[in-house]
Structure formats: structure tokens, C-alpha cells
Amino acid sequence: MFYRPEDGHGLPRNPFNAIVTPRPIGWISTRGTTGDNLAPYSFFNAVAYTPPQVMFASTSTKEDRGDTKDSVAQIRESGVFAVNIVSYALRHAMNASSASLPADQDEFAHAGLEKAQCETIDCPYVAEAPAVLECKLTQIVQLPGEANFVSFGEVVGVHIRDELLDEGFLDITRYQPLTRLGYKDYSRITDLFSLDRPG
Asked: Pick from 152, 153, 142, 151: which is nearest to 67 by CA?
């Protein structure tokens, strides 16, 4: 089949997210005037090595946040955020934190998660997360579309749980990172293989 997104796809559900898979999940924690917030975003990735930088995109709104959602609203206030990596063991807590709660309700508490305090920024993170990236906002870019905002951050601190390191290498099979697929589907990474780059 072929379709133009502007004309619609004619399928039971939009296949776009099912095509662009798997996607890592950026579990974004923030702190603002209304309190602490935690929410998962599957439009997330690393975008540069030096200095290390990441991005995530928020694509909808909440009535109590005007043109965006809690995460972007609080990053506008504070200029910082943390990216918590989601392990398979944390899948249910991650899903619980995706609930659309009022701005002053804490998703950490809602999902039954313990908080820890970042080292380099004033922000909480998920204490049980296998790895965490502490980020300082570099810019927020509005994409075409009413509520499409991409937040870019420079990574200024990195947490890795010691038990996940094997001879100095991060062994992701020890925590099995969760990935977002299309529709309501997720997967976890359990098997690896290596390829040597030509030349």
C-alpha cells in the first residue's frame, strides 16, 4: 500500500509508530513550581557525542499546561531534566507514570517509585533506574504542528548501576531495556550480536 499522511491511511490504527521501531524510551523526570514530575516519551534518542546530547519530543497538551505537557512546562521553568532508562523490571511503573494527572500530582508517588536526587542539577530521578542522564537544556524547538516540542539537553552527569558493568562495559542484557513499538506494543532487548564496521 501507499498513502499520503495528509489523506489518511484507511487502517484501523495509524501505522507510523509501528514502522519506526524499536524506539528507546526516555523516562523524563523534572522539578518545577508545582512539584516533581515523571513521564515516558518514546520520541527520544541520543543525538551527539561531544558534548553528549539527547532529545525528546512531546506531542500533545494538557488543559492545565496550555500549549504543552508537564515535562516541557517544567523544563521551561528549570532549564534541566533527567532521562531515566527503563528496564523490563520497571515496565509497570513506567506505564503507571504515563497517566494524565493534574500538574501538582507526583507520578513518582503514583507509580510507587523511590526518588533520588541528581548530583549536578536540581532534579529527581528514579532510584531503581539502571542508568540516568542528568541534562541541562540547550534549546526547545517547536516543530510543525500545534503541540510538537523537541527538548534538547547536554548530558552533564551519568549514573550507571555498578552491577550492570562487566569488565568496564555496560551489559544491557542484565537489565533488558524496554523499547516502544507500535500501537500498545513493547519489547525488551535480550540478545545481542556485533558487526565490525568496514575499513
From this structure: 142
Break the chain into its structural domains and give their ranges: 23-188
DSSP string, 101-140: --TTS-HHHHHT--EEE-SSSS-EEETT-SEEEEEEEEEE
The whole model's pTM is what? 0.96
Number of other CB atoms surrounding residue 179 within 10 Å: 18
CB 155 within 8 A of CB 135: yes
User: Can you give the pLDDT at residue 65?
Assistant: 84
CA-wise closest residue to 133 among 123, 146, 148: 123
> CATH homologous superfamily of domain 23-188?
Electron Transport, Fmn-binding Protein; Chain A (2.30.110.10)
Phi first, then psi, for residue 139 (nearest 5°) are -165, 155
Cell numbers that stand for 120 in this block: 549536578
pLDDT for 101-152, tens place per residue? 999 999 999 999 999 999 999 999 999 999 999 999 999 999 999 899 999 9
Scanning the structure block, which residue is given the C-alpha cell 532487548? 189
